[in-house]
TrEMBL record:
This is Beta-glucosidase. It comes from the Bacteria. The keyword Ubl conjugation does not apply. PROSITE patterns: GLYCOSYL_HYDROL_F1_1, GLYCOSYL_HYDROL_F1_2. Pfam families: Glyco_hydro_1 (PF00232). SUPFAM superfamilies: (Trans)glycosidases (SSF51445). Its EC number is 3.2.1.21. The active site is at residues 201, 392. One of its GO terms (molecular function) is beta-glucosidase activity. It catalyses: Hydrolysis of terminal, non-reducing beta-D-glucosyl residues with release of beta-D-glucose. Residues 26-35 have a biased composition (Basic and acidic residues). The keyword Cytoplasm does not apply. GO terms for cellular component: cytosol.
């Protein structure tokens, strides 16, 4: 970080250093004890936190970065709450070294971040920008220097705007440009990064970006959304195959996955259809080399299947080491004749999306830890060949800073409940390797701007000061013990 960046934006606090000191004195009374009923995780379990480039970096015009669809979208009036943008975000681009120190203080063993495509290939295709790679080069070195394993995601929704201007993910060419960009990142970081996550949540990128228009690029064109699904998956396959040939040790794909629950008896078909649209539309091509029949039927009625070419599904179906699971809530549905399709789920005519009567987070998302256990067991039953890793799980609440403290008992309860569900699934045989909490920092929550706080670390957006919330300190103890205490 440059001195001027530090002084102009307010100096980062020293909490990271204090946490390191606290973390290094082992509290043996804290050692997990399975006999006492403590929940002990497997040796080597990966404990991390996750973020994404546009949500935290800021510095959108620095060092040759091009514009992304999220720059253009967030600067379009009416698209993001309060007109918030990622222009400054958490200023992580300048404060990354302090943020890594903070992670080290929490004892994290891994960090999932995303690489901003428009920093690396500002025009989406053509020349690579070395200054953009330099940032991730420094970040990776900083992480490794603190014993933290980097887990980069290559696409977390910030498509270069020039590619959107040429059709975005609805255009086949974007998949090839993605694979080229992925290789450019691998060429620079491949000597130090072992595990590569290609995409984050293609369902969200395709359907919220191209069908409902709630996310960038803000299009409302259902056939384009289905083409986007296919080209995102094709981009994943092309990139995975290119990275594997280039020597990548581990490859992963991160999906938003949600168990679909029948809210009323007799809704089995409704639940199966939504499961096909939300989950199997991505799981089956990537892990089985085929689209579910229900999805093909729906796609055929929304623009046809002409975009699926011979050989594409073989390309998409690459051997994967890990499936990244992002879990927030189940989806509750019931059969309801005459109900129009939910715009986010084209093909869901006759299905009502229900709001169960249970506690919700500040996003209005139902809290249901058991859904995570069900999901993990289902994945390990249906796709036993791939290892699982939770690449996102967490919750937004209306946190307030009180001096140096942020009291967030709801988040601790949420994380505790979900980690217990994770532990249950492991005990029942799920091959689950690690857990990344969403998120390390409060950040730009897409269409909600800075109104939703998901961090275990609070960010004061006027001073950029970071304050570890009580949940961060709780998580630090979980990581240190590699488990949860009985009855805490
Ligand atoms: C996921 C996104 C992530 C964040 C969380 C709350 O869908 O991958 O960037 O917004 O939701």
């Amino acid at each position: 970080m440059t001195e001027s960046a530090m002084t102009s934006r307010g100096r980062a606090e020293d909490d990271g250093g204090d946490l390191v000191a606290a973390g290094s004195s082992r509290d043996t009374r804290g050692e997990p004890d399975a006999a006492r009923g403590d929940l002990v995780f497997p040796d080597g379990f990966i404990w991390g936190a996750a973020t994404a480039a546009y949500q935290i970096e800021g510095a959108v015009a620095e060092d040759g970065r091009g514009a992304s669809i999220w720059d253009v979208f967030s600067h379009t009036p009416g698209k993001v709450a309060s007109g918030h943008t990622g222009d400054i975000a958490c200023d992580h681009y300048h404060r990354y070294a302090d943020d890594v120190r903070l992670m080290a203080g929490l004892g994290l063993t891994a960090y999932r971040f995303s690489v901003a495509w428009p920093r690396i290939v500002p025009d989406g295709s053509g020349p690579v920008n070395p200054a953009g790679l330099d940032f991730y080069d420094r970040l990776v070195d900083e992480l490794l220097g603190h014993g933290i394993t980097p887990y980069p995601t290559l696409y977390h929704w910030d498509l270069p705007q020039t590619l959107e201007d040429r059709g975005g993910w609805a255009a086949r060419d974007t998949a090839y440009r993605f694979a080229e960009y992925a290789l450019a990142v691998h060429r620079r970081l491949g000597d130090r990064v072992r595990c590569w996550i290609t995409l984050n949540e293609p369902w969200v990128a395709a359907f919220l970006g191209y069908a409902t228009g709630e996310h960038a690029p803000g299009r409302r064109d259902v056939p384009a959304a289905f083409r986007a699904v296919h080209h995102l998956l094709l981009g994943h396959g092309l990139a995975a195959s290119a990275l594997r040939s280039a020597g990548a040790a581990q490859l992963a794909l991160t999906l938003s996955l949600s168990p679909v629950i029948e809210a009323r008896p007799g809704s089995g078909e409704a639940a199966a259809r939504v499961d096909a649209l939300a989950n199997r539309q991505f799981l089956d091509p990537a892990l089985r080399g085929r689209y579910p029949e229900e999805v093909l039927k729906i796609m055929a009625g929304h623009g046809g299947l002409g975009h699926i070419r011979d050989g594409d599904l073989e390309t998409i179906h690459q051997p994967l080491d890990l499936l990244g699971v992002n879990y927030y809530s189940p989806t509750y549905v019931s059969a309801a004749e005459g109900e129009p399709a939910n715009p986010a789920f084209p093909g869901s005519e006759g299905i009502r999306f229900e709001r169960p009567d249970r506690p919700v987070t500040a996003m209005g998302w139902p809290i249901d830890a058991d859904g995570l256990r069900t999901l993990l067991l289902r994945l390990s039953r249906d796709y036993p060949e791939v290892g699982l890793i939770i690449t996102e799980n967490g919750a937004a609440f209306d946190d307030r800073a009180d001096g140096d403290r942020v009291h967030d008992p709801e988040r601790i309860a949420y994380l505790d409940g979900h980690l217990r569900a994770v532990h249950d699934a492991i005990m029942a045989g799920a091959d689950l390797r690690g857990y990344f909490v969403w998120s390390l920092l409060d950040n730009f929550e897409w269409a909600y701007g800075y109104h939703k706080r998901f961090g275990i670390v609070y960010v004061d957006y006027t001073t950029m000061r970071r304050i570890p919330k009580e949940s961060a300190l709780w998580y630090r103890d979980v990581v240190r013990r590699n488990g949860l205490r009985n009855g805490e």
